[in-house]
Amino acid sequence: MNIQLLRLAASGLLTASTAGGIFALDAVAPIHLLSLSQFGQPSAHTAFAQDSEDSVNVRVYEQASPAVVSIDAGNGTGSGSIISPDGLVLTNAHVVRDTETVTVTLANGDEVEGDVIAFGEAGLDLAAIRLRNQRNLPTVRLAQAGSVSVGQRAFAIGNPFGQFRGTFTTGIVSRIDTNRGLIQTDAAINPGNSGGPLLNSQGELIGVNNAIFTTGRASGNIGIGFAISVDRVQPFLVAVREGRAPTTAQSPRFDQNAQRVALNGAPISGTLTEESNVLPEDNSYFNSYTFDGRAGQQVVIEMTSTDLDAYLILLAPDGTSIAQDDDSAGGTNSRLVATLPADGTYTILANTYSAGETGNYNLRIATEAGATPRPERPNTIPSQQVGVILQEEGTLGPDSQVLREDGSLYEEYTFQGQQGQTVTISMTSTEFDTYLILFDPSGQVLEQNDDICDTSSQECTNSEIVIELPSDGTYTILANAYDNTGRGRYTLTVR
Q: CA 384, 386, 391, 396 torsion: positive or negative?
């Protein structure tokens, strides 16, 4: 699920311009400048308490920040903690899951290459990096398991938005979820803080920051952040040191306890609660459903709700993501159309856009009218190289992401590709001039296209990329507009 750039706003005092993210003071009441003499000077006790708090903040930052690093994984950024003098770095799996090597920036500004050597079991959002040719590095100490209490002070250090390295925020431990191994905190955490440390007053790591809760796409940090507890971190590090940790990213078994459903059956009524499954990447809730599908079958899945912002994920029999959708059914409802690549059991995740959303929903799963299974083609190209890989209907509008280079809007999609596979990516719209950008699995721009012309009408506002993929992996598409005026509906197809 995409991470949106979140704007900060303090309720009642600060408002954020939805166009430019510029903050201004609301004129809620006149402010009177009062002399200190009207109230008396601050007491020595108050001054001492303030000095004491400041000194703790400064001490924690000076102690831990030299061992906090910034991570550039090619298609994203994050943070991490050095936990051994020879360069073992702890971070989130979702920061580095699509690459084997990363560039790590140390606190002193030095850039070092690192190798991703281990991941958490069964989707635990932890990973380890080994920095090359390092020794005598500063480290972050780990707190003892079971030592964290609600109400204690908490401190976060990281690289929010990939451009504010060494940012320090403070708060408290707001809640401990022992079942999910999470610490909730009101210390400000933003995209880019992922993988950085949550610390106690002794500068010890009590958790690894990995997600925030928001009430919507335009919401700011509202003081609900999550960190993976040190109780889960310590066993992971033991497995890393003993060579038992997986060396590739692990996906959770989403089909465990899944409800079996039939295509074209009656609509399903479901409920997401705090007891539902939790998606490790962002701590959102989901329920899972499985159905049997055949190669070439085109399916339509819809999730509607008045309680939550619906999000759908369709997984292939091997667990890879085939398609995802947020709002294609209008409003906050989701709808995806996909052509199944192979025979087997498919999994649907009835999910939400943000962490913590709960409520009732309806789910409909059907075959597209007139769709027929594709015949088997033994001894030829793999089945996923034929037919529609991805088809999405979307809208560029106020909720879309903004391309920093020119202010144009875009939505992001991914698909799994294979080396030598030829794909055609098309984006069509009658409402604006479309633009396509394709990134390879390492995050490098592979191809761009503005216009293909319709010879019958001579209109040239649609885009198309035809390319032979250079490697196996996850490819990313930006469904973009030619300039910052582009708004409206579009259709994106990958064949």
A: positive
Instruction: Choose one of 380, 413, 440: the last residue of a domain.
Output: 380
**pTM higher than 0.70:** no
Known active-site residue 125: yes
> Facing residues of 434 across strands?
481
Structure tokens at 484: 């910052």
- For residue 355, how many other CB atoms are within 10 A of its CB? 20
- State the DSSP string of 124-154: -S-EEEEETT--S---PPBPPTT---TTSEE
454 and 343 fall within a common domain: no
The residue to which tokens 């102690």 are assigned: 63
Closest CA to 462 of 434, 487, 490: 434
Question: For residue 55, what is the DSSP state?
Answer: H
pLDDT at 127: 96
- Decide if 194 is catalytic: yes
From the list 79, 194, 429, 463, the catalytic residue is 194
Chain segment 180-206, per-residue pLDDT in tens: 789 999 998 887 888 999 999 999 999
The alpha carbon of 186 is separated from its chain's Cα centroid by a whole number of angstroms, namely: 19
Question: Which tens digits make up the pLDDT trace of 279-291?
Answer: 866 778 999 999 9
Q: How confident is the model at residue 373 (pLDDT cuts 50, 70, 90)?
A: very low
User: Are 82 and 217 in a shared domain?
Assistant: yes
Q: Mean pLDDT of all residues in the chain?
A: 81
Q: Are 107 and 228 members of one domain?
A: yes
The confidence score (pLDDT) of residue 1 equals 39
Q: Which two tokens stand for residue 455?
A: 């010879």
In the set 70, 72, 81, 125, the catalytic residue is 125
Catalytic residue (choose from 70, 79, 94, 229): 94
Q: Do 333 and 231 reside in the same domain of the chain?
A: no
Residue 292 has which token pair?
Answer: 């049997």
* Annotation says 55 is catalytic: no
Domain extent, residue 481, equals 389-495
